[in-house]
Amino acid sequence: MDAIRQVLIVEDLPDVAQWLRDQVMNLLSPERIEQASTLLQAQEKIREQAYDLALIDLGLPDGSGVELIRPFKEANREAMCVVTTIFDDAEHLFGSLRSGADGYLLKDDTEAEFSDQLSGILAGRPPLSASIARRLLEQFHPVFGEKEVTLTPREKEILTLIAKGLSVKHAAQKLGISHYTAAGYMKDVYAKLQVNTRAEATLKAIHMGLVNPS
C-alpha cells in the first residue's frame, strides 16, 4: 500500500488499545486513528467512515470480532483487515481468513516481531505472526508417511455439508438422518483425520482431496 491514512482499532482493553495506537502511529503515520471497544461501536464506525486499515481483536465483550471482518472488507474494498488477538488455534485462524482477513498477528509476540510484521503492510507483506505462518504451512504441507484415510460415502456427505457451514443438526436434517447418527459420523471423521475441531477437519479433508471446497 502507498499510504495508510485512516485506521480503525477494535480492542476492548484500554492499555492494549493504546499500545496498538502507538504502534500504528509510529510505524504507519496515519492521518487519523479511530477506536472501538465493542462489536456495536465498531459496526457503527464501519458504516460511517471509510478506512485503509483495521486492526480487529476477536474477543470482544459483545461478540466475536470475526463478525466485523466481512462487513469491513465489503465497505472498504482496497483496505487491509488484520486480526490482532491472543487466539492461536486453527478454528479462530481459519475462521478469520475465510471471512476475508488479510493478516493475523498475535498480541503476545515480542514487540519487535509485532512491529516488523505491522510495518510490512506498507511494503505489501501480509502481516502474519511466525507461529501462524507455520500453522498455515503445516495445513497444506504433505506429511510423508501419512496413512491413507478413507471416508465412507456418508462420512464424505456430512463432512461436505459441515465444510459449507451447516451445523451437525442441519446436516442431519438435509441427509434425512437423526442428529445422533450424524454426530456419530462426525466423531468417526474426527478420529480418522486425527483432528479436534470442525475447521481442522474441513481443511484436512480438502488438503487430502476427500472433499471438494467448491
From TrEMBL:
Domain HTH luxR-type: from-to ranges: 144-209
One Pfam family this sequence matches: GerE
Modified residues (4-aspartylphosphate): 57
Domain annotation Response regulatory: ranges: 6-122
Record bears the keyword Glycoprotein: no
One example GO MF annotation: DNA binding
BP GO terms, sorted: phosphorelay signal transduction system; regulation of DNA-templated transcription
Keyword terms of this UniProt record: DNA-binding, Phosphoprotein, Transcription, Transcription regulation
Gene3D superfamilies xref list: 3.40.50.2300, Winged helix-like DNA-binding domain superfamily/Winged helix DNA-binding domain
InterPro entries cross-referenced by the UniProt entry: CheY-like_superfamily, NreC/VraR/RcsB-like_REC, Sig_transdc_resp-reg_C-effctor, Sig_transdc_resp-reg_receiver, Tscrpt_reg_LuxR_C, WalR-like, WH-like_DNA-bd_sf
Protein name (Swiss-Prot/TrEMBL): DNA-binding response regulator
Organism: Alcanivorax profundi
